[in-house]
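Whether sequence alone determines local backbone shape is best considered at the level of individual chains. For completeness, the protein is quoted in full, as a sequence line and a line of structure tokens:
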Amino acid sequence: MCATPASGQVKPSPSEVRVFKGLHAAAASGKAATIRRLLASGANPNIQDPYDRTPCLVAAHFKRRAALTLLLRGGCNPNALERDRYDIATIARVADDPETLRIALVNGARATNITSRYDGTALTASAHLGHDQVVRLLVDAGAPLDHVNNLGWTALTEAIMLGERGQRHTNVVRILVTAGANVNHADRSGVTPLDHAQTRNYAKMVAILKAAGAT
């Protein structure tokens, strides 16, 4: 991911929302009764707006959780990607929204999806952002711990190199290491997670990595 991993995500703008119709409009406003009625009348739950967003993706952006649940149960694809290749799980992790992520995962969203222009996963950027609760959910859901994005970074590398010494990023490092992430996976420059942590004087992270056998 990059220094601003959410920058690739495009939330529907007010002008877009104003012209939404049908399920997209109901998803944006969270009108559950309208969603039920439209689905019952045969509305396509996977219809896309001009940005390739399904109603599920719109509901995830606006944290309309009841609407999202109805749409998913009504046949909306939980792994659909919009134009920039974000899915509902990735939208939830950028927003630090574990409640929406839980709904997504329970209803078929895969923690293994490769998303975004960086060929990452939902885990990669949630680690970068220090979203420790989201990271725990994704790890428990089977997210690939050592997936390498097209920048050559794993979730562990991002948590250290693009994170900070705060408690939430430290928690992320601990969660990943405890789950079995490769503590010696070097980036394309040959720099290991331990090297990154030592260079930044992240003492707590250094201790976690060394205890797990990092060299």
